[in-house]
Amino acid sequence: MTDEPIFEEINEAKANLDDIYDQPDPRAYFRELKEFNYAIPGSAKPIFQKLINHLQHRSDDTIHILDLGCSYGINAALLKHDLSMTDLYQHWGQKILAGIPPEDIVERDLRYFAHLEEANDIEVIGLDQSEHAIEFAEEVGLLDEGLVVNLETEPLPGSAKDDLATVDLVVSTGCVGYVTEKTFDRLLPAVTQGHSPWMANFVLRMFPFEPIEQTLDARGYVTEKLEGHTFIQRQFASDEEQEQVLERLHEQGIDPSGMEAEGHLLAEFYLSRPSNEAAGLTVEQLVLA
Ligand SMILES: C[S@@+](CC[C@H](N)C(=O)[O-])C[C@H]1O[C@@H](n2cnc3c(N)ncnc32)[C@H](O)[C@@H]1O
Question: Which pTM does this prediction carry?
Answer without folding.
Answer: 0.96
